[in-house]
Structure formats: structure tokens, C-alpha cells
Design goal:
This protein is mainly alpha-helical. The chain has 18 helices and 2 strands. The chain has one domain: Growth Hormone, Chain: A (Up-down Bundle), CATH 1.20.1250.20.
Length: about 425
């Protein structure tokens, strides 16, 4: 059957019908998600918190806020992903959940700008995490559902590439706006930032809902709530040891990137002494993103040929080199050079690790297993946020000592994660 480019992607077609545009259709939602969260985590939230938290505790407050949100992501994604695996909707297994999560996200996003209270920002941020992960868990089932096995590395590369483009482009725009933000008269720039992020997310959602055509879901018996929750997180360790090792490795290798993204603005302000922290943080994110773009698609294609594990191991070791260079950086130029190396490493990691997760996931439970893969990612991301109190603690005993400890944690995680993936022996 030939692909019909004028119609939404039809999942009833065979592998030969999977055209180039179909890679974009099933992954564009990730662009909207990443544009939203990279801008919020790197630019918007660090500057918003400075409106109402003490300067000496800013890393702690940011760490606790984002840690709580990532814990919710760890809970919501695999549960909703498993529910979508068993969905009997005529509209498809994934899209009804994507619609519900996207609508809730757009309704909750203004809460980030409405309140100048840490408690209220905390509540809205957590609810926003629940909403986006309600959509993200099922969305991640598109690749194992729809992509032929020998093209999943390419699909993972396209997914990562779109996420990077959305993330770095919107973060740079958000930095331009937020460098002009101030409470009171300058609040317009905050609302312009949130409105732009919401508009991009809305467009990505509409494209996904209209362009991807799933088969009607096949309803499966749903267990009672508590057993269903247990099943969502359950892995048979004896039968799936490779997937367990993959989860541990993925979680550890997620930590450095999240640490550097979350605390970049404060690091550049306190250690490097930049004048425009939002602009500098965005430029660092762009530099990392360029490194990611250089390798993310090529690494996905290469992993289809040489295997996933060699790419993952090499990316971890290269990331460790980037962290060492960052430790010896004393100006923005050398920081950006270090970021480029870390970007190259993370680009290869994103594609190869996601393709490896898709290889290890059973076809009849793809969303649940990939939800668990993102659970490991979220677990690493959540632990990364707890470095905030550590930074503030050690900074009290030495100038910027906390940031040195932060980089040491990044170095250890890159090396340990790359070695642990060698435990993955059998690919499905």
C-alpha cells in the first residue's frame, strides 16, 4: 500500500507506507513539550523565584520545586501509559489522553505568572507536571506502535531533533523576553513568554491530533485500581534483567544534563559573573543544543547499524570530558565550549538510549515500558534537582564550593551510567 501524503498517517499501512513526513507527525508533540519545559526550567522559574525567595537559598527552593514535579511525573507517566495500552477508544489508544492532558496544560500554564507566592507557584507547577505527563505517557507509545523495528533509531533521532529545535529556539526567545522582565511594570514580558510557550504547545497538539491516525483501540480488561497501579510499575527482574540495567543506567546518565540545565542561570551568575544571566543561560542552552543537533540524528542512524550500546557508552565518556572542561572554565567562552562537548554527548545518548528502550519494550506493552524508561529518566531528573540544597550548603563553607560539588556529581554519573549499560546483553 502506498503512503497517502494528503491524508493523516494511517497506522493500518505496512512498513513500506511509512514515509518521511510520518516521522514528523508522530513526534512533533515532543517539540511542544520540550519547548515548554526547557524554557520554564532554564529561564522562567529561576527568575520568577528570585521575586520572593532569599538569595542565599535560591538553589534550594528551585531544587525542591522541580524535585516535587518530577516525582509526580514518575508516578503519572507509566500509569497513564499503561491505561492507554488497554484503551478501547474508537479514536485510538493514545490521542484521547493527549487531548485531555494538553487542555489541562493550557489552562494551568497562566498560574506560573498569576501568583507571587512560593506555595501557590509550587501547587500550579505540580499540577502542570500532572497535566503534561498525562499527555506524554501515551504519546510515547507512538514509536513502538507505529514505526517498523528497523526504522526506530531514525524515528528516535527525528524525535530528539524536533525536541532540541523546540527547546533551544523557545528558550532563546524566552531569555530575550525575561531579561526585560521585572515585577510590576515589567510583568508584560513574563506574560508574553508564557503566551508564546502556550501557543507553540497548542499548535504541536493540534498537528498531532489531526495528522496521526491510529487504529481504534482494542479494549482489554482493566484490573482494580490498586492492582492496576502495582502492575503499571512492575517489572519481572528475573525475566527482564536487561531492561532493569538499562533503567539504572538511563537514570544516572540523565542526572548531569538536568543539573546543568536547571542551575545554569545561577551558576553563570555566581561563578562566571555574567551581566545578563538569562541571555547567557539561553546561549549555553543553544550551544548545547547545537552539539545535540550535530549528533542526535546521525547517532540514531548509526545505532541501527552498529548497535545501541556502543553509542551509549561513548556518549557517557564524552560527557565526562565535557564536565572536566567546564570545571576549568572561567569565562563565558570556555563555558560555551564545554557545553558544546556535553551537547555532542547528550545528542548521541538521546537517540541511542531511546532506540534501545524501544528495542527492549514488548510490543503489547510499549507505552508502559517506555513510560518506565521515562520513569528512570524522571527519577534521575528528580534526584538531580536535589543538588540544589547541596549547592547552597557547601557554598556556605567556601566561595562557590557548592558548584564544584555539583560538577563532581555530574562527572561520576556520566562515567557510572556509561559503564552500567554494558550489563544489557540481550536485545529483543
Amino acid at each position: 500500500m502506498e503512503s497517502r501524503k494528503e491524508e493523516p498517517f494511517d497506522t493500518t499501512a505496512g512498513p513500506r507506507a511509512f514515509a518521511g513526513i510520518d516521522y514528523v507527525k508522530i513526534t512533533v508533540f515532543g517539540l511542544g513539550l520540550t519547548a515548554l519545559w526547557s524554557s520554564l526550567h532554564t529561564i522562567v522559574l529561576p527568575l520568577r523565584l528570585l521575586d520572593f525567595v532569599p538569595e542565599a537559598s535560591k538553589n534550594t527552593y528551585l531544587g525542591y520545586l522541580t524535585f516535587a514535579g518530577l516525582v509526580l511525573a514518575m508516578l503519572v507517566q507509566p500509569i497513564i501509559g499503561a491505561r492507554s495500552d488497554r484503551s478501547g477508544s474508537r479514536w485510538g489508544r493514545r490521542k484521547p489522553y493527549i487531548l485531555v492532558g494538553a487542555v489541562a496544560t493550557l489552562l494551568l500554564l497562566p498560574g506560573i505568572g498569576l501568583w507571587s507566592s512560593y506555595a501557590l507557584i509550587f501547587v500550579f507547577y505540580c499540577l502542570l507536571q500532572v497535566a503534561t505527563n498525562t499527555a506524554q505517557g501515551p504519546y510515547q507509545g507512538f514509536i513502538p506502535d507505529l514505526v517498523p523495528t528497523d526504522k526506530r533509531g531514525r524515528a528516535s533521532g527525528v524525535k530528539s531533533l524536533l525536541e532540541l529545535l523546540g527547546g533551544i529556539t523557545l528558550a532563546r526567545l524566552a531569555a530575550y523576553f525575561m531579561d526585560r522582565y521585572s515585577p510590576g511594570d515589567g510583568a508584560y514580558w513574563l506574560w508574553l513568554t508564557l503566551g508564546t510557550l502556550g501557543a507553540v504547545f497548542l499548535v504541536a497538539t493540534l498537528v498531532t491530533l489531526l495528522a496521526v491516525r491510529e487504529r481504534p483501540g482494542t479494549s482489554a480488561p482493566r484490573p482494580p485500581l490498586l492492582p492496576g497501579l502495582v502492575r503499571s510499575f512492575r517489572i519481572n527482574v528475573k525475566q527482564e534483567p536487561d531492561f532493569v540495567w538499562f533503567l539504572v543506567s538511563r537514570g544516572m546518565m540523565a542526572i548531569p544534563g538536568v543539573i546543568l540545565q536547571t542551575f545554569a542561570l545561577y551558576f553563570l551568575t555566581d561563578v562566571i559573573g555574567v551581566d545578563s544571566p538569562a541571555e547567557a543561560a539561553a546561549n549555553l542552552l543553544i550551544t548545547v543544543g547545537v552539539g545535540l543537533v550535530v549528533t542526535v540524528y546521525l547517532a540514531g542512524r548509526l545505532s541501527d547499524r552498529v548497535g545501541r550500546r556502543p553509542i551509549v557508552v561513548a556518549s557517557g565518556l564524552l560527557g565526562a570530558v565535557g564536565v572536566i572542561l567546564l570545571y576549568f572554565s572561567h569565562d563565558l567562552t570556555t563555558v560555551l565550549a564545554s557545553g558544546a562537548v556535553i551537547g555532542l554527548a547528550n545528542g548521541a545518548l538521546l537517540s541511542a538510549a531511546w532506540a534501545l528502550a524501544a528495542d527492549l519494550a514488548p510490543r503489547d506493552a510499549g507505552a508502559r515500558y517506555l513510560g518506565l524508561a521515562n520513569l528512570a529518566l524522571a527519577a534521575g531528573s528528580a534526584l538531580a534537582r536535589l543538588i540544589g540544597p547541596v549547592i547552597d550548603f557547601f557554598n556556605r563553607y567556601g566561595e562557590n564550593l557548592g558548584y564544584s560539588m555539583m560538577l563532581l556529581v555530574c562527572l561520576v554519573c556520566f562515567i557510572a551510567g556509561s559503564l552500567l549499560v554494558l550489563k544489557v546483553k540481550r536485545i529483543r
